[in-house]
Amino acid sequence: MVDTNKDEDVQSKIKAEYDRGTELKAFDDTKAGVKGLVDSGVTEIPRIFHHPSENLEENSVLGDAQLSIPVIDLRGLTTEKSAKRKEIVERVREASENWGFFQIVNHGIPESVLEEMKDGVRRFYEQATEVKKEYYTRDPTKPVFYNCNFDLYSGISTNWRDTFMCHMAPNPPKPEDLPISCRDILMEYSKQVMKVGILLFDLMSEALGLSPNYLNDIDCAEGLTVLCHYYPACPQPELTMGATNHTDNDFLTVVLQDDIGGLQILHENKWIDVSPQPGALVVNVGDILQLITNDRLTSVQHKVVANRVGPRVSVASFFCTGFTPTYKMYGPIKELLSESNPPKYRETTVRDYVIHFNSKGLGRTSALDDFKL
């Protein structure tokens, strides 16, 4: 006969022994991140990384092999009013409205720069922990900072990834403030990806029926934050995530990913793999661009699954001023509104939106919904 009271006592004891807050702080205090756990030889992931079963059940649904996000070739954009440009603008419009994600090839960044950027990320994480520790902080206003999970203390669960971030515009850090392991390539890649972002905002402006420079004129490309993610191989990927379901708290994100894969987007209630393409960059619409286009362009849920293979590296370039103090207000673009399409969102500053988004953490209800009228 099973002693149910004894079972309940055991469960209560286990629950009492697991103080999540204390374990989070102990982990954070190591300043070694997930990479430090892997280096220590863990074969079972700490409980702080376990995700709720409802999140993990979704992981068992394989990406739909019949669907893939659009891949747009930017070759032929030199002539402003060419038929080729019109075709590209139309593809950008369709992808931004219906998918919220697309990949671009022939974007102008040399493949050697892309490869060196990925190598630079690996060099940063694979150097001595003591060297990395000098950048470890939870102060997002620092020009350069490294930690594990920006929402470590507010998120539902901890994700199996480490990140270092650099605010490259509008106020770039001094070169000597950047990690020597990737200093030169960070500056070069940031310069190149800024050109790509400005071009994409031109194309999106045209796709919306606005003048080509509209989105750039309202400073959508004013800010650039480069997030360098490192997802170590995980001994128990069935228990955790690389990144919880979320949207991005910016205007636009341009992602460089390696060939391991793991990024998925939610499209028509199915999780779709964003398969790595040689030399391609992944582009996705952020929350603030959805807000100012009054839901015309779509900021879509996406996630990264954990993997036994690794490390996976990715570089996400966020076009957003983030925590930069500003009084500039953003609301639905008046030229896109009408009697039948009234504004759906209240105005906000980028900084206020980002602070609200970050306070919620990943995996919770949409931050964008909180700005609806």
UniProtKB/TrEMBL annotation:
Its cofactor is Fe cation. Residues 222-322 form the Fe2OG dioxygenase domain. Keywords: Iron, Metal-binding, Oxidoreductase. One of its GO terms (molecular function) is dioxygenase activity. Pfam families: 2OG-FeII_Oxy, DIOX_N. The keyword Zinc does not apply. Belongs to the iron/ascorbate-dependent oxidoreductase family. This is Fe2OG dioxygenase domain-containing protein.
